[in-house]
Amino acid sequence: MTAKTMVEGNWGEKRLASRVAARKRRSLWLGAAIVMFAAGLPFMAGFVDGFRDAPKTSAPPWVDAVSLIGWIVVVALAMVWKWRDMDEVERGHALRAMATIGLVAFLYMPILMLAEPFITVPHPVTTGWLIAVAAGGIPYTVRRLIDWKRR
Length: 151
Hints:
The chain is built from 4 helices and no strands. It is mainly α.
């Protein structure tokens, strides 16, 4: 049997608009959670040290380990969460960016070892990762901004 009344004509547009709004809300909450996590651990360590009248020193090694593990978990969850919201074009951009980061990071150390007699880099591993992330992250970010501007 068919219904005698017509359903609302623009139900698909409303559904899409609600999904886009929910996606923006989730992204906002995710960004806020990352910022809170980044600012929260050092703040809490300093706050507790202030009550204990502890000397102003750097954080103990276990705090650094917990921060690193927390960051890895947060970044992994954010990537999985955003991956589900992406379409095939955005996924292609993300895969190309990750491949670029991996390739630059893979090639950086042998190139640095060959150039070591001629130049010195103060923190080679950190510098290599920053160069790799910049090589993949900057084009990806620019592409995302251009796509966002078109919408």
